[in-house]
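FORM 7B: Structural annotation worksheet

SECTION A. Query
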Amino acid sequence: MTVIRQEDLIESVAGALQYISYYHPVDFIQAMDKAYQREQNPAAKDAIAQILINSRMCAEGHRPICQDTGIVTVFLKVGMNVQWEADMSVTDMCNEGIRRAYLNPDNVLRASILADPDGARTNTKDNTPGVIHYEIVPGDIVEVHVAAKGGGSEAKSKFAMLNPSDSVVDWVLSQVPLMGAGWCPPGMLGIGIGGTAEKAMLLAKEALLEPIDIQDLQERGASTRSEELRLELHEKVNKLGIGAQGLGGLTTVMDVKVNDFPTHAANKAVAIIPNCAATRHTHFTLDGSGAAALKPPKLEDWPEVTREAGGNVKRVNLDTVTPEEVKTWQPGDTLLLNGKMLTGRDAAHKKMVDMIEAGEELPVSMKGRFIYYVGPVDPIGDEVVGPAGPTTATRMDKFTRTMLEKTGLLGMIGKAERGPTAIEAIKDHQSVYLMAVGGAAYLVAQAIKSSTVVGFPELGMEAIYEFELEDMPVTVAVDHLGESVHKTGPQLWQAKIEEEAIKVI
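SECTION B. Predicted structure
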């Protein structure tokens, strides 16, 4: 009989969440480095470089890889011979561990969890509750997997109840392009097949906890149907040419994981859940000897990468930029932003549009300004701001026309592609949309030299800030004519891959 103490589980969960906030899994870093070495699209290669540089910086500085520090999922396998020395439930112990991790003053993690999700959507302030899964198994230990999943990648999850004769491969290949770039590729796809609707989703989520080992599978060959699917999907998804950050390129997925389960004769439940460039998960075991101690990876595990921005880099002063200057920018151009920039995401946009419709004055003028879709991590020590990477831009699409038309906003900065509604508004108002790299939040934060809340302070991380910038790297994603690099890039690279029969990782 093993006795597991309450404090040991709490401290282990808290420690694991801090650990994964700044350490990528080593298998992920190695796979990302391979993708970097073979990438031929300069824009995609630079995006991967930023992700790798950011990852090393976070490992050294013990700060979050991404500003979205995720919703926590905990999987526990509890041995039947385990005895708990506790007065809390296991769920409450896990949530206390989450609470301690996210409120740790040495590395504050962003609280993103909202209660009353279809009503008041009130922030719980400590990122609880997590999503907890249990399995009771033979034995006298407790095995725990902890993951922190960003909202952008989780939002791209897909599910279907296929007919038994339908092709899983065809369905997946039809869905991946619809996911866009909001899940921050390159990453992994977890696929669950069978069981019931909820079982398929759980299988897909659990698949993402497995290490990247597609090259080993390629070398030894498939021995099961799920392994055959992994190999086929890995090859065919990469042939779509979506590439890093959706810019077009050779690597969209570094691995595809497939879990299956017996199902009803009339059903074929299939789920896809992507893991993003801020992949965060780890595993530990409690055997009664105390809290888990996770061994830090070695800094040698990270490659030394230097960005090569190319010859099309333009330095931009946001304090003096004009509509005429914006019209000279071409899709795919790299810009280095300097000067003052505003921020605002979902809640701030909703409040601003409501105020505009009510004829009220906004807390800050948007005329001729650029707005960055971000909800930064709180700063620690002498930081101006914590990690401050972009959030998914499509969520702001429904507000874009009003913002451009009624406020005189000149440009927007976010993550991934814009939808047709936003692109039409950008074209009509001769505006522009710039893309920052998702998964490079700490690197981006180094370009922010001052930060001041200038509107809606009650929204916390969703308030309107004014950032003073020094060489913040972005890519022109939609120009003033409405041309989107997220359309032209993947089309170009899909054609190149087909023409040259390039073998993808």
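SECTION C. Observations
The two ends are 47 Å apart (CA to CA). The chain has a mean pLDDT of 95.

SECTION D. Sign-off
Analyst initials: ____
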